[in-house]
Each structure stands twice: as C-alpha cells, then as structure tokens.
Write a structure and sequence with these properties.
Blueprint (H helix, E strand, L loop, with lengths): L2 H5 L9 E8 L4 E9 H26 L4 H9 L6 H13 L5 E5 L6 H13 L4 H6 L1 E5 L3 H10 L4 E5 L4 H11 L4 E7 H7 L3 H10 E12 L4 E4 L5 E6 H11 L2 E5 L4 E2 L6 E9 L2 H16 L12 E3 L5
Parallel strand pairs: 3-4, 3-6, 4-5, 6-7, 7-9
Antiparallel strand pairs: 1-2, 7-12, 8-9, 10-12, 10-13, 11-12
C-alpha cells in the first residue's frame, strides 16, 4: 500500500483499523469475526456510513412532505448532523452557472447530490432540481471503491474523478484532463485537512474556481501545523496569516462566518471556521444572500444561528 497516498506520510505514527465481532455478555468474552487495516478499513466503514446518508436523503426527497422541521429530523441522524453543513453546500450550487463543473474534496459517494436535492425541496420547493442534476461533478477521492460507488449510485449524472491525494495535484489533474475552470469547489473540514499542505493550495483553487466554499476550515493563527487525526491519517492546519497575505496579493476576496466557529479543536491558537473565496464580490454577496435566506427559514431549530459574514482579515 502507498502510505504517502493514504496516511499522508511514509511512516505513519498511527494506523486506521476496523474490527467487527461480538461480545458475550454472560461469558464476558469478545470474539473478532473480521479485522481490516489502512485503506480497506476506511473504505468498508465510510462506504457504509455515507451510503446510509445517501439513502436517507433519497427517502426524504421521495416522501413528499417537505419543511425545515421534517428535514432536520433526517439531518440529525446523518453523519454530518449540522444543518449549516448542508446549507453551505447548497448555497454554493445555487450561486453558480448552470451545467458548471462542481468539485468536492473527499467526494465519497457523491451523497452531496441527494443532500442538495433534499435542501431544494425544503427551501425552494424543488425549483432547482434540474439544475442540480445537470452539473458536471468532479469527484476528488483517493478511494477507487468510493468512486465506483458514486458512479453506481448516480448512473445518469455526468461524473469524472481524480484520485490524487493532495489539493495541489488534484487541481493540476483536473486542469490537465478535464477542464481549466471550476464553477464551484467545496471542501469539508477533515477532507481538506487530509489533502492540503500549504496556504497557497487554497489560492491555487481560488485561481481556478468561480467560488470556493470551505466548511469548518482548520486554520492556525501562527504557522502551518501538522498532526495525526483519529482516523490515523496525517492532517494539516494551515497558517491564517499566510493565507490572508496570499489572497490579498492576488486580489481575491474571502469572508468567514461567525456562526459555529470552533476554537482550539486542532491545538492551541487554532480555529475551525466556514470560509468562502472568490475574485467576484457580487458572487460572494449572492452566496451570503442565499445562505442567509435558508438560515432564516431554519431559525425555528434550536441551536441554529445566523451569524455574520466578515472579511477574513479580521479573523483572530
């Protein structure tokens, strides 16, 4: 196995594993029926996890009863059980042009499609379903099993995939094989931490995307940091000062949301925060408008907060 590709380094200090078995409560005995390591363990666990969510949101879409309260019941039992997670991705889809190229870092089974359709039934009465179906989806996932699953679950969608393991290489691969321009790039929290190496990686994505959206992006208030995540894989927490400086030099605008910020989850002087980046100020404003409208409709849910969108240079 290629440790560099899966773990992010040649000599990992931890490994991923999956164990299945039983515990006899009378005899206090544990029996292991199956044990897997590395990419195989990750695939078997994550495939089941995300297939469950995909089918869950398909069930909601087919149910015919759409409102925020009902949608939230499904959100709370999904892998990513924060309503903001779904609205961020959905707002990104609505703000871009039709038939655009949409790329997700760590695309897994492309369950994002089912999530977006569920969001559209909830917030827009299904008026954008056809637009969601017509995007060209670019999956970025090192797992061939996940990519094969994504295609099997979505036979009528246009899809391509990159199995490169760093963001820098993913962008190069897409530009060389598929297109030199993305309409939307999206990255969720740990998926970005696996694939990123330096702040300049996000600038490179900004140069090739109409808009890029990051959900709970991990940032260091000092230098870029490296650590090991609970899955056993190496993660990177990039330097906020360096990112702000590079974006400013290139003329890109970036805003962060004050809602659902998490401090020191990745160590001292770190913050996880949702960020949007584009050279088009009007596109950022439109994204915020769409996002805010959806959040306004969701304020009936306990814990949902509107927050403010501020220039990233003010993030401390």
């Amino acid at each position: 196995m290629n440790n560099e590709k899966y773990y992010g380094c040649e000599n990992p200090e931890a490994i991923s594993y999956l164990e299945f078995g039983s515990i006899n409560l009378i005899k206090s005995k544990k029996d292991i029926w199956g044990y897997w390591q590395d990419q195989e363990a990750y695939d078997l666990y994550m495939f089941a996890r995300y297939a469950r969510d995909l089918l869950l949101f398909r069930k909601y879409a087919l149910g015919g009863y759409y409102n925020v309260d009902e949608f939230y019941k499904y959100v709370t039992i999904s892998a990513h059980n924060k309503l903001m997670d779904y609205i961020l991705k959905y707002a990104g889809m609505l703000v871009i042009k039709e038939k655009g190229l949409v790329c997700e870092s760590g695309s897994s089974l492309w369950g994002w499609i089912e999530e977006a359709i569920a969001c559209d039934y909830t917030f827009q009465n299904g008026t954008n379903i056809e637009k969601i179906r017509k995007f060209h989806y670019i999956g970025s996932d090192i797992s061939e099993m996940m990519n094969d699953g994504a295609k099997a679950f979505h036979p009528d969608f246009r899809m391509d995939f990159s199995t490169e393991y760093t963001l820098d290489a993913v962008v190069d691969d897409i530009c060389n094989r598929i297109s030199d321009r993305l309409a939307l790039f999206y990255g969720l929290s740990v998926s970005i931490r696996y694939a990123i190496r330096e702040a300049k990686d996000l600038v490179k994505i900004a140069e090739k995307s109409d808009i890029s959206v990051y959900n709970r992006l991990s940032l260091s208030l000092g230098d870029t940091m490296m650590s090991v995540y609970g899955t056993g894989k190496t993660v990177y927490i990039i330097s906020l000062p360096e990112l702000v400086s590079l974006l400013s030099k290139k003329g890109y605008k970036a805003k962060y949301c004050t809602a659902n910020m998490q401090r020191e989850k990745d160590g001292k002087e770190t913050v996880r925060v949702s960020v949007i980046i584009s050279e088009n100020t009007k596109m950022l404003d439109k994204f915020i408008e769409i996002y805010s409208e959806c959040i306004d409709k969701s304020l009936c849910i306990q814990g949902v907060e509107q927050g403010e969108w501020k220039d990233i240079k003010y993030l401390k």
